[in-house]
From TrEMBL, chain B:
Residues 11-104 form the Autophagy protein ATG5 UblA domain. Conjugated with ATG12. It comes from Periophthalmus magnuspinnatus. This is Autophagy protein 5. It is a peripheral membrane protein. Residues 120-174 form the Autophagy protein ATG5 alpha-helical bundle region domain. It holds the Pfam family ATG5_HBR. InterPro entries: Atg5, ATG5_HBR, Atg5_HR, ATG5_UblA, Atg5_UblA_dom_sf, ATG5_UblB.
Length: 1206, 275
């Protein structure tokens, strides 16, 4: 699971976060203000500060938040001026929106808040529906409004062009105030809750934000999504009473607590109406004590009553948001908060500690016990923690100074030493020197940091210093005169932050903190090397406005006291391993060092001691065994047989599963390698028969997708030609995995293959998401006699992916069905391949989520309109996409027993062709092309339902958070390459083009993303051996990226490449020099005349049809996934094929060689940079290959017996 | 770079060429040919010498035959130590093949345990595994195993089936990443001299501060003389499976990869050869 954060506010108003991988609360360093409450989502955190305003902290990510402003310039032709700005009186504005109704001059666009900046100036969009336009970007039409074309015709009377300008959200990772609204300013806010991100995924990053004002009114923030994180405006929501608190879940649940202690539940929340429509009342669980707090998740509601009792609401789901009854839970809490996966946190009324509800699972949503989170806060371990040192170092830039403090610090060096011994002894000498010299060098008129003034509030009464009383009395000296009285309580961190990120403070007038509540305060002036000291002093001097009561109940507490917790960003579930519990200071440091140990596995691989052991073991073998091999072995080797029962999909018609005896006989081959034979014993007409396969001839063992049986297929070269594997089904999943692991080890043993794959390995993925790799033989790319493709041996590695890409220095990336990016760790095995078939290191848990779709079909009849009563000839009213199989909500199972449902059925609106508000698509009849609106001619309609399922497995993959990807490409290096930093390009699942920095053979995951600007979303990218980057946009056109080099990894600009006539491209792959692309109709295209001086090439040449995907390698070798391949027994869909005859002089090759399939989805050969051995042969015709490899691609639509069931 | 799994295979398939000769005093009717055999380092002498016994019984009078035992240059060889340990401890300076003298008389009751059947070896082997797991996992893993798993471990050793053995043994080598290693490292340090047969104490894979303990740390605590002081000449060799791992090698790794099938890390400390 990716690392995520739990947010909390302590009673002093300081904001902390706790990482799911961490063991301490980290203080939010840039909160210049105390906060009352926070509410977190994964991409941002909202909070109410003590000025009662709402602040937003958008987490920095490699994907910038960019908003595209656009407007149209309209012109009309007249005989005098030609095209000019002079329009007819009846025409639209000269500058308008796309409809022409809104007047939109360029200078009318303003930045919405100081958190934004313009990325550049306005420019003309020269791309029109996937085609480049003339230089000026004009499109022509007969009149407004009409259809525009990019060509000027004789009757073109008007023209327009599209202007674009991007603005960028710059206030990342800082608390930026949401500008108050000029009109209808709500009274101060009291509570806030965000959620709703699961209601619909479009637009991206959409959030519902609900707020409660002090007067008990409820407000809904409109228009929050990724490109507009601040939202547009507050909308008041009508209420039946006065609300004190509100909670919004990730889905459609919203509950609020009324002043009188009852609840109101929002109904009617949906995709088109995130605000909901009406309230329903629910009574407090206890007649004596009204409710004070409520929190909701996806399917749960928890509440707290005035007597601090905790209640769980039974029977809540999106159909019944009110639930059915209350259950009293153990524990007394001040507040509870439901996070992701319906996990629950609370703050105990007894000790104000944060508790986690253990044992919350989808089947047991109320969980088992409360467990206290006992991790220290940052800085609590000792004063010498790394962070305080860092801030110490930064502090020395010393913008401000105060002689009085200096003298105090200097006059008392002993105390400094006793209080912060760690600090003093671990500060590097240089920094000490800096500390004493730097500040005096600085000009006196450096801008002073602004520190927010804290207004009085009931909350502030809790904001007392947590200094120990002894210390306070000791330091309770008159504050320095230079410190004004209204100084707030700047904690150490807020002060250091002032210096850490000087940009907002460095006198820029656009500081997001400049508002009425902020007063420019003169900061306490420090000139001291002792940071802890100075921080102490200044906070001391600043707390004088509050009574520093010695009897304060919180002063002496050892553990932090929490006021609020928000888990909306915290992605844990019942399987997560958290290190948050029972974590004393010592053990936590132990754990940390253990973590660092396990992370440093890679260096250990190359450690001297390991090398020594390998070398000495080799020497030992030479010394003790090699000369004595003729000696008799003390223990004789024997044949080892493993038997079992299975079902076999019999080879003759009618095909069906029959019970068979299954046996593997293993023995040592003459060369010492182990070998074996596989036997399948069956009965035919009362007669015992058997089928066998030699283990050393097996080319692959493939788990097969089957929703009820645990099946796998065994291929040999012969069976690959037939497209008819041996299909077997085991009784249980465990049994199948045992067999697969054993057979897999036997196959590897018989071929002498052990350990991790080589860097040259070819990787492929089946439609089931299983990952296979094959070691290329040196002759695989030989001309004219390459190793036949059907003889390649494939072995499985653990994990579940949709796409995998590699290069020849061993960097391998994968993308899951849920678009998560994964980097290969160098291990092998995982999944069911355990024990000897798996490396011990480098195996991690991997999860994947995908959706299962079913269709609801209806037919119109004149009496009742659309109903689920079809004609007798119609498809099932609930079916799969083809309509051939009945798929109801209840009978549809997850794709295989490995998957479990993680959501309920929901209408899917993201269907191509569009849908209406209820998700329906209309057509004249089944099956036909569907559209998202009803016309007179439509008699049938359908809608798609989706349900998410999840798989958890293990494999040699580590997640690369946080950006989900849809495509990735790694520069294919030559065999002996000295490239250190390897260029890697990717497309995010939203279509952004990204460039990964810091990718090397040792750090395959790289360090950060560089965003490459585009004017439209992209879907495919590929980088060639000399950094030539090609990409495909969502509209099907191709682009070439200019000037990409190691110095300029992101290049400078896109060059539009028209797609082949009337075709929309979908995928591109670039090898050493060759550029190949596949279009949506399965055609493979080769880019002609690509040369270093003319990298864009001249035109697309058609190579083949029947192609789903292409991978071009560093030798310019071409491999594809073919759509359909006919074998002697059956037909396979999704087959690995190899282009034969590819040579430098003939990069297009001539025929296909057919490899493993069907059911293959993806292949990458970009790791194989091994130059084939060269034969000096007279040129041959390809007859030797095409003769015995007759199968031609077929265009038949009939599909039967495809192994993977797809 | 080779994989750690290869170490397991190398350890398992370690062999010592041996030449068995009948003791001169016991030669009776006719001269017995020496018998040559490749002995598995990880097995036990009495478990793999059926062929030797059969060979020499042919020349023995039945009434002269008592329990078979072995001796190398006057030292009786303890069958309950793994063969590799015996060789590293006593025979590593000898030229190969290792010449072992076979006796059928005068069983040295003071030095050797009786071993009248394989079940005695099995009991010894299984008790070692259990003791090791008590140290590693408070016996949790071995107690969770079924009887057939125990049998598979033994049969794997007896029949020299690496896969069969490791299919079960891997469970004994597991530990949670949180702990960073076993509870204690099961080890024994053998020396040729000294009254105690071997040193065995509690030793953790990680220090209290979480630092990784190395072979050097282990020896400094258990056998300081085996770690040469600064500038001092190396007098003693530290041998595991016939090799000398560097003192920087983490003990946890050693325990996982260089333990014998009985799950103990057997470390031999022998004098540096004088030549």
């Amino acid at each position: 699971m990716p690392i995520s954060l739990l947010w909390a506010v302590d009673v002093h108003g300081r904001v902390y976060s706790l990482s799911t991988a961490g063991q301490q609360w980290d203080q939010c360093r840039n909160a210049q203000m105390e906060f009352k409450r926070v509410t977190a989502a994964q991409q941002c955190c909202w909070g109410i500060a003590c000025d009662n305003s709402i602040y937003l902290n958008v987490h920095a990510s490699d994907l910038p938040v960019r908003y595209q402003e656009e407007t149209y310039e309209n012109q009309r032709w007249n005989p005098v001026d030609g095209f000019s700005e002079r329009l007819l009186p009846s025409d639209r504005w000269q500058w308008s929106d796309v409809s022409g109704l809104q007047h939109q001059p360029l200078d009318g666009f303003q930045l919405p808040s100081s958190s934004w900046e313009w990325e550049g100036d306005w420019f003309v969009d020269e791309n029109f529906e996937g085609e480049p336009t003339e230089r000026e970007g004009w499109t022509y039409a007969i009149d407004f409004p009409a259809n525009y074309t990019k060509d000027k015709k004789w009757n073109s009377c008007v023209r327009r062009r599209h202007w674009l300008r991007y603005r960028r959200y710059k206030a990342m990772d800082m608390w930026a105030k949401i500008p108050s609204q000029q009109t209808t300013l709500p009274d101060p806010f009291n509570d806030i809750s965000c959620g709703g991100w699961d209601i619909s995924e479009e637009p991206r990053g959409r959030l519902s934000l609900w707020a409660v004002s002090l007067q008990g009114k409820v407000w809904f923030r409109e228009g929050i999504y990724h490109h507009n994180p601040e939202g547009w405006s507050w909308e008041e929501v009508a209420l039946p009473g006065e609300v004190v608190q509100i909670s919004c879940g990730p889905g459609d649940l919203v509950w609020a607590v009324l002043w009188e202690g009852q609840f109101i539940v929002r109904e009617g929340i949906g995709r088109d109406c995130p605000k909901g429509s009406s309230w329903t009342m629910v009574d407090s669980p206890s007649p004596d004590a009204g409710a004070i707090h409520v929190t909701v998740g996806a399917n749960v509601v928890w509440a707290v009553t005035k007597d601090n009792k905790v209640w769980f609401r039974r029977g809540v789901n999106s159909h019944n948001p009110c639930g059915s009854g209350w259950i009293h839970m153990v524990g007394e809490m001040l507040m509870v908060n439901v996070g992701l996966n319906d996990q629950v946190w609370g703050i105990s009324s007894e000790d104000r500690a944060v508790y986690f509800r253990q044992g919350v699972t989808p089947s047991e949503l109320s969980g088992k016990t409360w467990k206290t989170i006992s991790v220290p806060r940052e800085g609590e371990r000792s004063h010498s923690s790394a962070s305080s040192l860092q801030s110490a170092g930064c502090f020395f830039t010393g913008e401000v100074r105060a002689p009085s403090v200096t003298s105090e610090a200097e006059s008392d060096p002993d105390r400094a030493l006793t209080e912060g011994p760690g600090l003093v002894c671990s500060v590097a000498p240089e920094s000490l020197v800096d500390a004493t010299t730097n500040p005096s060098d600085l000009p006196l008129d450096t801008p002073k940091p602004r520190i927010p003034k804290v207004t009085s509030d009931s909350f502030i009464s809790e904001l007392v210093s947590d200094r120990e009383p002894g210390k306070i009395s000791k330091e309770a000296q008159p504050p320095p005169a230079s410190v004004p009285e209204e100084e707030a309580v700047p904690s150490e961190e807020s002060l250091t932050e002032v210096v850490l990120s000087p940009s907002p403070h460095s006198g820029a007038p656009s500081s997001q903190w400049s508002n009425v509540d902020l007063e420019e305060g003169q900061a306490p002036q420090i000139q001291s090397s002792l940071v802890a000291e100075s921080a102490d002093t200044c906070s001391l001097s600043s707390v004088v406005t509050y009574t520093l009561a010695m009897e304060d109940p919180y002063t002496n507490d050892e553990h932090p006291l929490w006021a609020w917790v928000s888990a909306g960003a915290c992605n844990v579930d019942c399987h997560s391993q958290l290190n948050w519990f029972n974590c004393s200071l010592n053990t936590s440091s132990l754990l940390q060092s253990v973590q660092s140990m396990s992370l440093s596995v890679t260096p250990a691989q190359t450690a001297a001691w390991r090398k020594q052991i390998f070398e000495q073991l080799n020497e030992r073998t030479k010394r003790e065994i090699d000369n004595f091999r003729h000696y008799e072995q003390a223990v004789e080797q024997s044949v080892w047989v493993k038997k079992g029962t299975m079902q076999w999909w019999r080879d003759w018609k009618p095909h069906k599963w029959i019970d068979v005896q299954f046996a593997l006989e293993q023995f040592s081959g003459p060369d010492g390698n182990k070998d074996g034979i596989l036997f399948i014993y069956y009965n035919l007409y009362e007669e015992k028969k058997y089928l066998h396969a030699f283990i050393n001839e097996v080319t692959i063992l493939v788990p097969v997708l089957n929703d009820s049986k645990h099946t796998f297929a065994v291929y040999t070269p012969e069976r690959t030609k037939q497209r008819w594997p041996i299909r077997l089904a085991a009784a249980t999943e465990l049994e199948m995995h045992d067999w697969l692991a054993l057979l897999s080890v036997s196959c590897c043993d018989s071929r002498g293959i052990h350990g991790a794959p080589s860097k040259q390995a070819i990787w492929s993925i089946t439609c089931k998401g299983d990952i296979f790799m094959s070691e290329p033989s040196p002759a695989l790319e030989a001309v004219p006699y390459p190793t036949p493709c059907d003889q390649m041996f494939w072995r499985q590695v653990g994990g579940h992916l949709r796409t995998v890409e590699c290069n020849s220095v061993g960097i391998v990336w994968g993308i899951g069905y849920d678009h998560t990016a994964w980097a290969y760790t160098g291990g092998y095995g995982g999944g069911f391949l355990q024990g000897l078939a798996s490396s011990t290191d480098n195996i991690y848990t991997q999860t994947d989520v995908k959706s299962v779709f079913i269709y609801e079909n209806q037919r119109w009849n004149p009496v009742t309109g659309y109903t689920s009563r079809g004609l007798p000839t119609d498809r099932y009213m609930w079916s799969d996409a083809s309509g051939l199989h009945e798929c109801t909500k209840t009978n549809t199972k997850p794709p295989s027993p490995q998957w479990t449902w993680v959501s309920d059925w929901a209408i899917d609106y993201s269907v191509s062709g569009g849908t209406d508000k209820e998700g329906w698509q209309y057509a004249a009849d089944f099956p036909a092309s569907y559209h998202g609106y009803k016309t007179m001619k439509d008699f049938v309609r359908r809608r798609r339902w989706a349900r998410k399922c999840k798989l958890t497995t293990t494999g040699p993959w580590q997640e690369i958070p946080p950006i989900p990807l849809s495509d990735v490409s790694i520069l294919p290096c030559a065999a002996q390459s000295s490239v250190e930093v390897v260029p890697l390009w990717a497309i995010s699942n939203k279509g952004d083009v990204l460039c990964r920095l810091g990718v090397t053979a040792l750090t395959p995951a790289g360090s950060s993303w560089l965003h490459v600007g585009t004017d439209q979303p992209f879907k495919s990218v590929s980088i060639g051996a000399v950094s030539q980057v090609w990409a495909i946009a969502r509209d099907g056109s191709a682009f070439y990226r200019g000037a990409v080099s190691s110095e300029n990894p992101a290049g400078d600009s896109w060059y539009h490449i028209p797609s082949p006539a009337k075709q929309k491209l979908k995928q591109v792959s670039v090898g050493r020099t060759s550029v190949y692309a596949v279009d949506e109709n399965g055609n493979l295209w080769y880019r002609q005349s690509v040369a270093p001086s003319y990298p864009q090439g001249s035109f697309w040449e058609h190579i083949s049809n029947n192609v789903r995907k292409v991978s071009v390698g560093p030798l310019d070798q071409v491999w594809i996934i073919a759509d359909k391949v006919q074998g002697s027994h059956s037909l396979s869909c999704g087959t690995v094929c190899h282009r034969l005859g590819v040579q430098p002089t003939e990069p297009k090759g001539h025929t296909w060689d057919y490899g493993i399939g069907g059911g293959w989805d993806h292949i990458t050969v970009r790791g194989n940079a091994m130059d084939p051995p060269r034969f000096r042969m007279p040129p041959l015709t390809n007859s030797s290959f095409s003769a015995n490899r007759s199968p031609e691609t077929v265009r038949s639509t009939e599909v039967n017996g495809n192994a993977m069931g797809c | 770079m080779a994989d750690d799994k290869d170490v397991l295979r190398d350890v398992w398939y370690g062999r010592i060429p041996a030449c068995f000769t009948l003791h001169q005093d016991e030669v009776t009717e006719r001269e017995a040919e020496p018998y040559y055999l490749l002995l598995p380092r990880v097995s036990y002498l009495t478990l793999v010498t059926d062929k030797v016994k059969k060979h020499f019984l042919k020349v023995m009078r039945a009434e002269d035959v008592e329990e078979m035992w072995f001796e190398y240059e006057g030292t009786p060889l303890k069958w309950h130590y793994p063969i590799g340990v015996l060789f590293d401890l006593h025979g590593s300076n000898s030229i190969l093949p290792w010449s072992i003298t076979v006796h059928f008389k005068n069983f040295p009751e003071r030095d050797l345990l009786h071993c009248l059947s394989n079940s005695v070896i099995e009991a010894h082997f299984m008790s070692s595994i259990k003791e090791a797991d008590a140290l590693k996992h408070k016996s949790q893993v071995v107690n969770d195993m079924q009887k057939k798993d125990h049998k598979q471990l033994w049969m794997g050793l007896q029949n020299d089936k690496f896969d069969q053995f490791w299919a079960i043994n891997r469970k004994l080598m597991e530990y949670s990443t949180e702990d960073g290693g076993f509870r204690y490292i099961p080890f024994r340090i053998y020396q040729t001299t000294g009254e105690r047969p071997f040193i065995q104490k509690l030793f953790r894979p990680l220090s209290a501060e979480g630092a990784v303990h190395t072979l050097g740390d282990l020896l400094r605590e258990m056998y300081p003389a085996a770690v040469p002081q600064e500038g001092e000449e190396k007098r003693l060799l530290v041998v595991i499976h016939g090799i000398e791992p560097l003192l920087e090698t983490p003990v946890q790794w050693l325990s996982e990869h260089l333990s014998h099938p009985d799950n103990f890390l057997h470390i031999c400390v022998v004098p540096t050869p004088s030549d």
